[in-house]
Design goal:
Elements lengths: L3 E7 L6 E7 H6 L2 E4 L6 E7 L3 E7 L6 E7 H6 L3 E4 L6 E6 L1 H20 L8 H16 L3 E3 L6 E5 L3 E6 L5 E5 L3 H8 L4 E3 L7
Parallel strand pairs: 9-13
Antiparallel strand pairs: 1-2, 1-8, 3-4, 4-5, 5-6, 7-8, 10-11, 11-12
Helix pairs in contact: 4-5
């Protein structure tokens, strides 16, 4: 069977996850549109020159549309790509394997439910965010946050549905989801956090 990529996003209108697969051949053959069954939103993928794909993703978390340019090698070769809303930090789209699509759709469904429940809240999930921040403080107290460039200097920005860590030396960023119980569980499993920046220094 030809390799395929499954695209999952959360419809901003009906708040239901949209899941469809496209083969590598179809993605390279021409523009693709992935529409929600409610017919009020659609995601588009177009292959551009220079071996890049342009995605236009409707976002349920900020109400806007996000554009993302992804190298063909990454879109077709990586097992999973996650696109986040730059305004809220919430994960809004997954490009993954068919076997992982169900879990991705469930994450988006849960995020959509919390979005409805906390429309005027400071965070997408107040409880999870506070627990994530507490866990990050504990990891930081053990001096276990570093960057692959060799630096242990970092800054933190708290977003609506995630926390962004930035290396103080090379500027590399790491976004940590902070919206679901699964996000908290994943963080609690970590002994250390590594920001993927420049190659390690001698």
């Amino acid at each position: 069977m030809e390799d395929a990529k499954t695209i999952v996003y959360l419809c901003p209108v009906c708040r239901q996850p949209v899941t469809e697969s496209r083969t590598a051949f179809a993605l390279q053959a021409g523009p693709q549109s992935i529409a929600c069954s409610c017919k009020d939103s659609s995601l588009s993928i177009v292959e551009e020159a220079a071996g890049k794909f342009l995605l236009r993703v409707p976002c349920a978390f900020c109400g806007g549309e996000h554009r993302a340019e992804i190298p063909a090698g990454s879109l077709l070769g990586k097992k999973t790509l996650v696109l986040s809303c730059p305004k809220t930090g919430a994960e809004c789209c997954y490009l993954t394997e068919e076997t992982a699509a169900k879990a991705a759709a469930q994450r988006l469904r849960q995020a959509g439910e919390m979005l409805d429940e906390s429309a005027e809240g400071t965070f997408l999930n107040e409880t999870v965010m506070h627990e994530v921040l507490s866990e990050l403080r504990e990891i930081a107290a053990r001096n276990k946050i570093s960057c692959t460039c060799g630096s242990r200097k970092w800054g933190m920005r708290v977003l609506y549905g995630s926390v962004e860590l930035t290396c103080g030396e090379c500027g590399a960023k790491l976004r940590i989801p902070a919206a679901t119980d699964e996000d908290l569980d994943s963080l609690c499993c970590l002994d250390r956090i590594t920001i993927r920046g420049a190659a390690g220094k001698s």
